[in-house]
Give the backbone structure.
Amino acid sequence: MNIISHKLSVLQTVFLVTVFLPFINCYFVNVDAHAEECFFDKVTAGTKMGLTFEVAEGGFLDIDVKITGPDGKVIYQGERESNGKYTFAAHTDGVYTYCFSNAMSTMTPKIVMFSMDIGEAPKGHDAEAEAHQNKLEEMIKELSTSLTSVKHEQEYMAVRDRIHRAINESTNSRVVLWAFFEAAVLVAMTVGQVYYLRRFFEVRRVV
């Protein structure tokens, strides 16, 4: 009986994790110069929402960010940001817009990694009026939130690692090219000096 109860508890936990895990959408988007890319989420009032982003490639790794509500209200706006995280609660029902603008760039496109997190919709009055709430559900909600944070951190660490690796490889290539250039200059100077000294000490016969 204990084994059966344990299995049922595990199955219940897995089911609750699946149910209560927030919706997480992770994307990579290419934003061309002088262009703007927008994405949309339709939610009900009171729903917790979040936007996490990081510029992976392009230029100075900066982008303009803007979040607007269904009524046109600007919820968040940032200029020339490399990364960021912003959470808020929907103030009204409708479609919320997330926009990434590369208008400041003249010719360099940007690659942006971002995720739009949508929490649970607010519960009705009947659910809120319940005197006793399932403690296991609360623990699963906290666990799902922690897993979401860990997942985001892993993704951003991977992006940062790729960016730093690209910078290191570029720096190493430039160092190698500069070393070859210096060696070529030294060889040319040596040959020139030898030629000049031979000409200087050359004895010319007068016929």
Q: What stands out?
A: Helices lie at 2-20, 125-128, 135-200. Strands lie at 23-31, 36-43, 48-57, 63-68, 74-81, 83-89, 94-101, 110-118. Residues 135-200 form the longest helix (66 residues). Residues 80 and 129 are 46 Å apart (CA to CA).
